[in-house]
Amino acid sequence: QLAGLAVIAFGLWLRFGGAMADFASDKKSPDYFFMGLYVLVGAGALMTTVGFFGCCGAARESQCLLGAFFACLLVIFAAEVTAGVFAFIGKKVAIQEAQKIYEDTYDDYMKNPGGKVNGTIYRYHLALQCCGKDTMEQMGLPCPENIQVPKASNCLVEIHNVIDAYLHLVGIVGIAIAGTTVSKSMFSL
């Protein structure tokens, strides 16, 4: 149960906290962008529920409940491995999609600097602590005042760095929790 709650908390933190939340707040963000996180949160919720029933089965020494617990843990194991593998393999596609969304927003802003895209591009710049696609194109962009100088040059590089780091973390956590799930299923047998 505790591992399930930890997976839920970790998945929700990555989804709604920090720079990743700013990527998701834009209407242009694709649904599959956070698929690995959704699978982790779902697996965590299932782990918490199944953990409760596993405790009941162990307390009552019910072979039926413990067998059902084992079967559910196998399904959870498959979901966690899928999330981990998706995070590692789908990294490149997710980075390209996020960079394309930024470039489209950037181009929309350059066509109409006073439009409603202004807030969106500012959120990207604030979340990533960068400004623009190149150092030469930063003139007139809504840039945060307190950005760090080394990061200020290229938002496309920062998008790559942030998504790479977060999806790498999702993959590691997914596979690590899958390992604990296998050990719990062995104990139930």
Automatic annotation (TrEMBL):
Signal peptide boundaries: 1-21
Classification via SUPFAM superfamilies: Tetraspanin
Keyword flag Ribosomal protein: no
Any one Gene Ontology cellular component term annotated for this protein: plasma membrane
Top-level taxon: Eukaryota
Subcellular locations according to the entry: Membrane
InterPro entries, per database record: Tetraspanin/Peripherin, Tetraspanin_EC2_sf
Pfam families per record: Tetraspanin
Main localization, broad class: membrane
Protein name per Swiss-Prot or TrEMBL: TSN2 protein
Phylogenetic placement of the source organism: Eukaryota, Metazoa, Chordata, Craniata, Vertebrata
